[in-house]
Amino acid sequence: MRFLAWFRSIHPIWKMLPVLAVIILVAPFPILGGQPVDRHYRVEASRFAYLPGVLQANPGDRVTIELVSTDVVHGLEIDGYGLGMTADPGQPASMTFLADRSGTFRMRCSVTCGAMHPFMIGKLQVGQNTWLWRGAGLALLAVVAGLWKARQ
Ligand SMILES: [Cu+2]
What we know:
Order of helices and strands: HHEEEEEEEEEH
Largest sheet: 5 strands, mixed
Number of helices: 3
Structural class: alpha+beta
Strand content: 25-35%
Radius of gyration: 24 Å
Bound molecules: copper (II) ion
Distance between the termini: 27 Å
Helix content: 25-40%
């Protein structure tokens, strides 16, 4: 009962704070960039790197990756998506998929192409880094709460 009395005594705005914090943390994030689009990436593979090394897409985008090898046979596999292909020099390969999983996924060469082969990696980034924005939202909430308290 004592807790109840205490809870009634605090200003409604303080009861709202935890609710707002939870909303900031779990609210579905609007996809910046709007409608899903078709994205086409031409990735050049050479010992021992991809160019470009980082591919970006929004969730729902249809992504086509064209793999062009400039020296020896290289592969491109995307961990977490279970996709892969290999390209001979002079014979580009390509694959199309739906970017239906958000996050950062490792792309790696699947063909042993030389001494530094294990380091031939890249990144596929699907979606925004929402934790950055959620963190900013929480910080803003804390500032507003601090200002409110200072005014009392
Ligand atoms: Cu390779």
